[in-house]
């Protein structure tokens, strides 16, 4: 899969999610259909921006990762999560489940407390 020249987002996510929260996201994402697909050109800047836009609208999305070998798909799903500032909740086959909590009016309620990541000085 071709990648953009952008490096992954060096900023840490402002929060961490626990295993129980990840399971809750997988349960909520089970019925979702993937509506974003990596095209022949791979993870271009336009593709990454369309994923960011979808995350602004939906918080939890499924992305179809394409025809790459399994190890490369998982690596590319993690890179996509980093570039979009999202958590990779799950990868199964060619599907990646991404979650990015809205700062204002989040729709998805996670069990337990959201643990804030340490701030860099």
Can you describe this structure?
This protein is an alpha+beta fold. The protein has a domain at 1-7 and 35-102: YhbY-like (Translation Initiation Factor IF3, 2-Layer Sandwich). It is 33% helix and 18% strand. The protein contains 3 helices and 6 strands; from the N terminus they run βαβαβαβββ. It has helices spanning 19-29, 45-58, 70-84; strands spanning 15-16, 36-37, 60-64, 87-92, 95-99, 115-116. The strands form 2 sheets. The chain has a 4-stranded mixed sheet, sandwiched between helices. A two-stranded antiparallel sheet has the order 1-6. The longest helix has 15 residues, at 70-84. It is globular, with a radius of gyration of 14 Å. Mean pLDDT is 83; it is low at 1-10.
Compact summary:
The protein has helices at 19-29, 45-58, 70-84; strands spanning 15-16, 36-37, 60-64, 87-92, 95-99, 115-116. By secondary structure, the chain is an alpha+beta fold.
Keywords summarizing the entry:
single chain; 121 residues; alpha+beta; Translation Initiation Factor IF3; 4-stranded mixed β-sheet; two-stranded antiparallel sheet; 3 helices; 18% strand; globular; disordered N terminus
